[in-house]
Amino acid sequence: MKAKKALLIVDVQNDFCPGGALAVPQGDKVVAVINKYIKSFYKEKLPIFASRDWHPVRIKHFKDFGGVWPAHCLQNTRGAAFHPQLKLPKETILLYKGMDPGKDSYSVFQAEDTSGMGFLKFLHLLGVAELYICGLATDYCVKSSVLDALKNGFKVKLLTDAIKGVDIKPGDSEKAIKEMVKKGVKKVIFKNIGDKL
Predict the structure, then answer these.
(1) Which CATH number characterizes residue 182's domain?
(2) Domain count of the fold of the chain
(3) Cys-Cys with 22: which of 72, 73, 95, 168 at CB 3.0–4.6 Å?
(4) Considering only CA atoms, which of 47, 194, 183 is closest in space to residue 128?
(5) Which active-site residues does the annotation give?
(6) Is the distance from CB of 50 to CB of 30 less than 8 angstroms?
(7) Residue 15: which of 60, 64, 79 has the closest Cα?
(8) Is the pLDDT at 97 greater than 80, yes or no?
C-alpha cells in the first residue's frame, strides 16, 4: 500500500500578510500557489491540514509580556482569520496553536483541533507517512514544524514556491532552508509535482 501523503498549510493568516500586525514581506504571494497544491491534494482525496496562531490577549509570546513579537493573531479577530483568497475545502482539518499564555508555540506539532486532538494523533490515525509543508513563516513556524515532523519520523517535502520568511536578520530564511535540507527535507516546487501525487 502506498504511504499516505498529507498537505500542511502553516499560518496563512491576515496578520502575517501585508497590512497585518506581523506582516511577512510578500506573505500573500504564497496564496495562489498554495491553492494549486490544495486542488491537487483534494483531487487525490488526501488529507489537508491548515494551522493558525490563535493567541489570547495576554501571552508571554508578545512584547508587552516579555516576548519578542507585537500582538498578533488574537482569537476571533480579523488578523487571526485565514487570508481571504486561501481556498480551503470544507474537509480541511483546522489546527490551533499558541493558546497557552506561558508558551511560545511555533510548531504545528503543538497544535490541536477544537476538540483538543493533537496534530500527531491525527497523522497516526490517518496513516500519514509523508508531509508536504508550505506557508508562513519559513524561518519560524514552517521551520519548527518541519523539524518536528522529521523528528517524529515523517518524510517531508518543503514546498519552496509556497513559503515566505520574516528575515528579521537578512538571510534567516535561507539559513532555515539549509538547516531543514541538512536534516533530511526534500525541496520541491509545484511544477515538479503538479498532479503526480
Answers:
(1) 3.40.50.850
(2) 1
(3) 72
(4) 47
(5) 11, 97, 141
(6) no
(7) 79
(8) yes
